[in-house]
């Protein structure tokens, strides 16, 4: 019998009573750890696992603010960087992009597209961490981080922990605004796990983007489908919008797509789980996207998403290797940075998406129609200069030339703004 179900009773009339159920047991925090990680999501768990591989088994504390199960999912092409490959929930070798002007498909069997659900990743991480000096505590949001002489103090509702290093793995947040000359789009989404009464999903192919109901002149919007079984799929409505308060109805978008694409009536499918969120798509520096400021924050922000796509799973896994290496060597942990060429190309693409959303569907169709290995190298930031040139030449010339001019003009505007502020 669970402790919360425990009751005490005697014969009625002889002082019988029911003992109150005990409250939740608060976690006991260690007084001091080598590394404190804020957030037990994708980046936090990857880094914790990497740290256990270091000599000496450093003590690690992972603090997760949620007290309920994490509903999120993460996807990426498998580039071999995942420290928890056993947690992959599903994989596909084929993908597609659907538009009113045609469908492009691609494949790269050596780098399949993978789905990782938060619950599966957490379970795999706990198995790996069971015999190490690492603890993961839920329901303990970090209120503040303050600096001392040679360590940091991590303040939580359950106490204060001394930490030699603090890593902020809560991920990027959509800011309200960015500095002049920067682009900010909000990638807002609602994803639903749906079950159908009859088999309708093609489990061989991931639909990365379905633009077939994109409205001319509106923000970029599409449907994303992960078919894990003939009658089970994750269906997500995604919107790229400059308006953080855009009232777009994602659930209606999903229901309309389910009816139109698979011919399902309302009584032929149901929603089992749902997740929602917002990912910043911006050329602003990642350090400004945590969304939370501490009094004195002697911590390194880890876990970023690629500005032009919102993908962050593989990036976080790769960064966790660098984090562990620097901690082992006693050198400062660097923040994640992209190559200058990648940053520039992403900046151009963001201006294209902002200024010409009506051309976005065709741009993504052309990009994802290129040979699969080339697409995967580009999407996982491993592309060569020749790869990048091939991709640029495959896209629409005039809109991207305008975006290029806008990018250069914005850079000049930022420089003038900084000079004026000095």
Tell me about this structure.
29% of the residues lie in helices and 27% in strands. It is built from nine helices and 17 strands. The longest helix is centred in the C-terminal third of the chain and has 25 residues, at 397-421. It is globular, with a radius of gyration of 24 Å.
Task: Give me the secondary-structure topology.
Blueprint (H helix, E strand, L loop, with lengths): L31 E7 L3 H11 L7 E4 L9 E5 L12 E3 L1 E6 L2 E6 L5 E5 H12 L4 E4 L6 E4 L4 E5 L2 E10 L15 E13 L8 E6 L9 E10 L2 E10 L8 H13 L6 E14 L16 E3 L11 H17 L10 H16 L4 H10 L2 H8 L5 H10 L2 H25 L1
Parallel strand pairs: 1-2, 1-11, 2-8, 5-13, 11-17
Antiparallel strand pairs: 3-7, 4-7, 5-6, 9-10, 10-11, 12-15, 12-16, 13-14, 14-15
Helix pairs in contact: 1-2, 1-4, 5-9
What's the rounded overall pLDDT mean? 88
How many helical elements? 9
Instruction: Please provide the count of β strands.
Output: 17
Large-scale geometry = globular
Question: What's a quick, concise take on this entry?
Answer:
Helices cover about 30% and strands about 25% of the residues. It has nine helices and 17 strands. The N terminus is likely disordered.
Labels describing this entry:
seven-stranded mixed sheet, globular, alpha/beta, 422 residues, 27% strand
């Amino acid at each position: 019998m669970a402790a919360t179900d425990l009751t005490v009773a005697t014969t009625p009339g002889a002082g019988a009573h029911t003992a109150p159920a005990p409250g939740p047991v608060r976690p006991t925090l260690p007084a001091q750890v080598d590394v404190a990680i804020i957030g037990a999501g994708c980046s936090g768990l990857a880094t914790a696992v990497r740290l256990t591989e270091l000599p000496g088994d450093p003590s690690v504390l992972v603090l997760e603010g949620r007290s309920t199960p994490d509903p999120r999912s993460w996807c990426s092409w498998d580039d071999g960087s995942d420290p928890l490959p056993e947690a992959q929930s599903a994989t596909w070798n084929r993908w597609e992009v659907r538009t009113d002007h045609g469908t492009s498909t691609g494949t790269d069997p050596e780098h399949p597209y993978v789905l990782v659900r938060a619950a599966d990743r957490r379970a795999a991480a706990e198995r790996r961490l069971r015999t190490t000096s690492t603890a993961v505590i839920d329901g303990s949001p970090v209120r503040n981080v303050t600096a001392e002489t040679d360590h940091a103090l991590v303040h939580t509702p359950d106490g204060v922990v001394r930490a030699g290093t603090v890593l902020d793995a809560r991920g990027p947040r959509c800011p309200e605004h960015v500095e002049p000359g920067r682009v900010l789009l909000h990638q807002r989404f609602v994803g639903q796990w749906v079950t159908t009464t009859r088999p309708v999903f093609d489990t061989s192919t991931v639909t990365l983007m379905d633009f077939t109901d994109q409205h001319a002149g509106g923000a970029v919007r599409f449907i994303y489908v992960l078919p894990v079984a003939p009658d089970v799929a994750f269906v997500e409505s995604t919107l790229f919008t400059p308006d953080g308060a855009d009232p777009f109805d994602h659930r209606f978008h999903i229901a309309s797509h389910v009816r139109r694409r698979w011919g399902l009536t309302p009584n032929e499918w149901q929603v089992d789980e749902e997740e929602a969120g917002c990912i910043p798509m911006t050329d602003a520096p990642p350090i400004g996207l945590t969304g939370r400021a501490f009094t004195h924050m002697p911590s390194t922000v880890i876990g970023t998403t690629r500005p032009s796509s919102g993908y962050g799973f593989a990036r976080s896994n790769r960064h966790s290797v660098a984090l562990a290496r620097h901690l082992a060597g006693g050198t400062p942990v660097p923040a994640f940075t992209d190559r200058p060429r990648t940053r520039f190309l992403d900046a151009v693409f963001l201006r294209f998406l902002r200024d010409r959303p009506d051309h976005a569907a065709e741009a993504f169709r052309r990009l994802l129609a290129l040979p699969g290995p080339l697409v995967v190298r580009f999407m996982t930031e491993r592309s060569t200069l020749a790869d990048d040139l091939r991709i640029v030449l495959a896209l629409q010339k005039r809109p991207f030339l305008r975006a290029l001019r806008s990018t250069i003009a914005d850079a000049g505007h930022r420089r003038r703004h900084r000079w004026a502020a000095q």
